[in-house]
Design goal:
Blueprint lengths: L5 H11 L3 H10 L4 H11 L14 E8 L3 E9 L2 H4 L2 H16 L5 H5 L2 E2 L2 E2 H12 L4 E9 L5 E7 L5 E9 L2 H21 L11 H24 L18 H17 L7 H15 L2 H6 L5 E2 L2 E5 H8 L4 E10 L11 H9 L1
Antiparallel strand pairs: 1-2, 2-5, 3-4, 6-7, 7-10, 8-9
Length: 351
C-alpha cells in the first residue's frame, strides 16, 4: 500500500519542478519518504534539484554599509512584506546596520548579544517589535574588513533590498586597488543576479560534488533528446561536473583523446599544438557545469561572457588582484514556512 497521496505528489512537484509522473515514481521508489524522493529525482536528473524542499516565504530586507576598510551586511526579517516597506522598520534596520558597522559586529550572534543605546539588544528589539506590531529577527550578518590599504572592498544592494553582496580583493599596488574597487561593484551586481553559492569550486564539499554528478549528466542527456527532436546541434555529454574532479590524470587522458581525434581526422601533426589548447579548454568547460552555476569565480561574467569572473579580474588587473572574500544574502533563504490550508482554517473557525 502506498505511503503517500496526491497531496504529497503536489508538494514534491512544487518543491522540485519535476513532472507529476516523475514525482509519483520518486515517491514510489522512496516508499513515500520526501527527502528520499528528492534524492531519487536528483540522481535521475529530473526537476530542479537545487530548489529547496519547501517554499521560502520569509519577509524582510537586506542592508549593507560599505566603508574604505570594512563593510557589513545584515538580514532583518519581518512577518509581512507590508511591514518590510514601512519607514519605521527601515529606520530600525538602518540603526542596527550602523550599530553593527561601528562596533565591528560581524555576525548575527554578536549583534543579538550586544548592547545598543545603553541597553541589551534584546530589550531594544522588543521595544521596536512593540512599536511596529510584528516580530522582528536579526537572522544573519557578515563583515568584510582589513587594515591593509591594498585590500579593497565594495558591495551592492539590489533596489528591492532583498539581495545584497559584499566582495573583498587583495591587490598588489595602489593603482590596481583603485581600479578594482570599481570593478568589484559590477561583479557584486553580477553575483546578486546570478546567485552563486560560493566563491570558488575549491569551496565545494567533495560529497556534494559527487551527489550532483550523475543527475547533472542525465540532465544534459535529456536536453540532447529534445535538441535531437528539433534537429539542433547536441551538447557534449560530460564525464564530470566540477574542476575538483579534473585531476592531472583526467586532463592527460583528455589530451590524448583529442590527439587521437585529430589523427583520425587527418589533421597534420605539425598544427596539433595550435588546436589542442582550444579543444582542451572546451573539454574543461563541458565538464565544469556545477562550477559555472554555483561558484562566482567560475561563472561566465554577465558584462563579458567570453570569460569567467575570475579570468576577467585577472585580465583587468594584469594578474595583480584576487577576489578572496564573498558574502551574498537574500531575504528568506533557507527558512521553511508552514503551508496554510486557508479553506480548512475557515472551516475550523466556523465549526
Amino acid at each position: 500500500m502506498a505511503k503517500f497521496g496526491a497531496k504529497d505528489i503536489k508538494k514534491l512537484r512544487e518543491a522540485t519542478n519535476a513532472g507529476m509522473m516523475d514525482c509519483k515514481k520518486a515517491l514510489t521508489a522512496s516508499d513515500g519518504d520526501f527527502d528520499g524522493a528528492i534524492a531519487w529525482l536528483r540522481e535521475k536528473g529530473l526537476g530542479d534539484a537545487a530548489k529547496k524542499a519547501s517554499k521560502v516565504a520569509a519577509e524582510g530586507v537586506i542592508s549593507i554599509k560599505v566603508g574604505d576598510n570594512k563593510a557589513v551586511i545584515i538580514e532583518v526579517n519581518s512577518q509581512t512584506d507590508f511591514v518590510a516597506q514601512n519607514d519605521v522598520f527601515k529606520g530600525v534596520v538602518n540603526q542596527i546596520t550602523e550599530h553593527a558597522y561601528n562596533n565591528n559586529l560581524g555576525d548575527a550572534d554578536a549583534i543579538n548579544s550586544s548592547e545598543i543605546n545603553g541597553q541589551p539588544f534584546s530589550e531594544y528589539l522588543s521595544l521596536q517589535i512593540a512599536t511596529i506590531g510584528e516580530n522582528l529577527v536579526v537572522r544573519r550578518a557578515g563583515m568584510v574588513s582589513s587594515d591593509d590599504e591594498l585590500f579593497v572592498i565594495n558591495g551592492y544592494l539590489h533596489a528591492n533590498s532583498r539581495v545584497g553582496v559584499l566582495l573583498g580583493a587583495k591587490c598588489k599596488d595602489k593603482t590596481t586597488a583603485d581600479k578594482i574597487r570599481v570593478e568589484l561593484k559590477n561583479i557584486a551586481m553580477h553575483a546578486a543576479a546570478m546567485s552563486p553559492a560560493t566563491l570558488s569550486y575549491k569551496d565545494f564539499d567533495a560529497q556534494f560534488v559527487a551527489d550532483e554528478t550523475n543527475g547533472r549528466i542525465e540532465k544534459v542527456k535529456k536536453e540532447n533528446e529534445e535538441l535531437a527532436r528539433l534537429g539542433k546541434t547536441l551538447k557534449n555529454v560530460p564525464e564530470f561536473v566540477s574542476r575538483q574532479q579534473l585531476t592531472d590524470e583526467v586532463l592527460a587522458r583528455a589530451k590524448e583523446a583529442i590527439k587521437a581525434e585529430l589523427k583520425a581526422e587527418g589533421k597534420p601533426e605539425k598544427i596539433w599544438d595550435r588546436i589542442i589548447p582550444g579543444k582542451l579548454e572546451r573539454y574543461i568547460s563541458d565538464n565544469t557545469l556545477l562550477d559555472q552555476e554555483l561558484a562566482l569565480l567560475d561563472q561566465k561574467y554577465v558584462l563579458d561572457d567570453s570569460m569567467t569572473v575570475g579570468a576577467y579580474i585577472n585580465k583587468v588587473s594584469n594578474g595583480k588582484a584576487e577576489i578572496t572574500e564573498f558574502i551574498r544574502l537574500e531575504v528568506g533563504e533557507g527558512i521553511e514556512v508552514k503551508e496554510e490550508d486557508f479553506a480548512a482554517e475557515v472551516a475550523k473557525q466556523m465549526a
